[in-house]
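Before drawing any conclusions, I needed to go through one protein's amino acid sequence and its backbone structure tokens, quoted below without any editing.
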Amino acid sequence: MLSRIAESLYWIGRYVERAEDSARILDVHLHRMLADPWVDETTACRSLLGVMGVGPLEQPLTVARVIGVLGLDEENPSSVVGALAAARENARGARETISADMWECLNSTWHGLPGARRRAEEQGVHAFFRWVRERCAVMAGLTDATMSRDEGWLFLVLGRSVERVDMTARLLSTHERAGGSIPSWLTLLRSCGAWETFLRTYRGSLDDRHSAEFLLLDRLFPRSVFAALSRAEGCLTELEPYGGPGQSGRTGVATDAQRIIGRARTGLEFRAADELIGDLGAVLAGLERTCSQVNDAVSRRYFRQTSAVAWVPGAVA
């Protein structure tokens, strides 16, 4: 497969996941601020910007301004709208590899953004974020239903899985870093679409240990950090089934990306839940570093050499 096509598919996976998860995170914060009248708006907005990796904005910080930067800024690939636009642009370069249904989904989503934004002004941003989640879910379903399980599929799922690890870690950081304005575990679980599955798994026992254990370590829930790391590791293994050049496949792993992902996965798998909760901030920061390192390693190994794609290109004024 051409490195150009592989890179486009990888970033389609990342950008679609980024749009969906950013919409989830923003929706969580807005619901929390509406439900809790004691939340300080400036503190909550500053916390959200920190979690999303955005530099400080000029004062005053308001919900509307943060939504504009993280949700509606077309020039920022880390915003919801910017990520959808970037996914479509990458799909244009890989039209011969993705299915017609996938292209039509991304293209119609992009063309539907102006109308969705008008509805958001009329009905509120929650309706807009719900629309984004639904469109991303349609794209995920079409991807699963219409792509052959070849190298192209592996690169797209690899990108989606790496982004999911990063965004789930950022979502958990809203609980760990936001001080008095943190969302409850209930809100976090619902934002991941995990509430009903969590109830069935733990019989309604909602506490710090069970919630963190579920979102970090559950093997069966696809949005858990462990499940996404395992999926990414599986994609990398299938891309290098016999090891790298000069290797027989009998010892070690073939690529730096596999080593980085493997260390992160085992670092979660063999630690007790109580230990993870006690060191949650460091664990989440380590996961975000892991995603950045994996992205760099994958780019060096498989893609043409270009400057790394950063979350946000400097501070936003």
Notes: The chain has a mean pLDDT of 85.
